[in-house]
Amino acid sequence: MIDADEMVALIESCRREMKAMLPADEFASLSSKTRQDYRQLGRTLLQRARYAEGGAAEVMTATQRPTTFYKRVAALRYCLYAGLVEQLKSLHSALSARPVDRLQVMAIQAQLQQQRAFLREFETARQSGPTGERRKRASKRQALRGLPGDWREQLYQRAAKGKYADAILVAALTGCRPEELRRGVLIRRVNNPRNDMGEIRFEIDGAKVKAHQGQPQRLIAYGAHDPHPLLEALRIRLAGRRELLVCIDSPVNFTVEVRRLAHSLWPKHKHAITAYCLRHQWAADLKRHAAADSVSQGLGHASAKTRRHYGQANQASSRHALHPAAIEAERPVKPTTAKGPRHRAVSSTESTP
Asked: Are residues 172 and 320 in the same domain?
């Protein structure tokens, strides 16, 4: 038998607990990719929680990294919220049907009861915070120490005949994220009307972008005749074409391949070399030779404070550093908050028109 009063009380209890835990519009700014990632991780954690002795709290706190804990918190919040919304919709449909499918209603009722139990476990663990001893995170900047000045060129040469050759070249020349390579980076040969000089431009669709964070679009340009070996390799790769789209299927597989190639080149190096090391090296080059805001814009940041985590000027080689001719980004770098036109950060090698 279905107890109507018990059902109403259960529904209201779930709604109150979810409302108290997060505003209804909490997830409005999440991208579809983030929603998908949160749902996948949240479902995995809930599945583990069903068999863990400590339930949701155990799977949330089974990590030494606070960042991992808070990512699990975010994923579970989203997954629990989305699951509750779906269950309440299903319940409404089941109760509206004629005749009422009592078995379906009872199944949904059981799911809601389990959902409420998870909510209470989750909230208790969330308020307690991470409990494991914090493990120091390995710095990618440290990984650059001890590498030869031309390590990027050597890495590309080792990868030149593989499926990720173009991706490594683009990551080295732009410092883009692996996720941005998954979306695709467009390379174009153009003439710059500002100085009537040829340029090779990289158009990047930004990742980690929210309402007031990150750069939705950015562009990094080099002189068409820049003699850097990486640009020489790119000109050969273009082979007369005006444009080339470079993309990868899996950011994870890409960084695994970079790690494998680097280990084959420098097996005694103390730190793992990953795709993000190319990003750190690119930032180090710009910190030595370019304006501060251009470093932030080129990395895809809208906040000046974030660039301090990437590369150091003393890690840039005088012989092998990259010198972008210009960087354009959709947003200015904070603390400026007013919305303005597309900003172009000019390098020391190009005079302001």
From this structure: yes
State how far the Cα of 27 lies from the Cα of 57, in Å rounded to an integer.
22
Ranges of residues in the chain with a pLDDT under 70 are 1-5, 7-8, 15, 17-29, 53, 100, 131-141, 195-196, 335-353
3-state secondary structure of 72: helix
Residues 316 and 242 in one domain: yes
Nearest CA among 181, 187, 180 for reference residue 220? 187
Paired residues of 329 in beta bridges = 218, 343
pLDDT in tens, 57-100: 788 888 878 888 888 888 888 887 777 777 777 777 777 777 76
Between the alpha carbon of residue 86 and those of residues 64, 77, 91, the distances in Å are 33, 14, 9
Query: Which residue range(s) make up the domain with 294?
Result: 140-346
Of the three residues 80, 100, 128, the one that is the final residue of a domain is: 128
Q: Whole-model pTM?
A: 0.61
Residue 144: inside a domain: yes
Predicted pLDDT at 189: 92
The H-assigned helical ranges of 144-221 are: 151-159, 165-174, 178-183
Does residue 352 lie within any of the structural domains? no
221: nearest Cα among 264, 186, 251, 183: 186
Q: Is 111 found in the same domain as 173?
A: no
Give the separation between CA 328 and CA 298, rounded to whole angstroms: 8
User: Do 236 and 329 fall within a single domain?
Assistant: yes
C-alpha 187/C-alpha 16 separation (Å) is 51
pLDDT for 280-333, tens place per residue? 999 999 998 888 899 999 999 998 888 888 888 888 888 899 999 999 999 999
Last residue of a domain, one of 75, 99, 128: 128
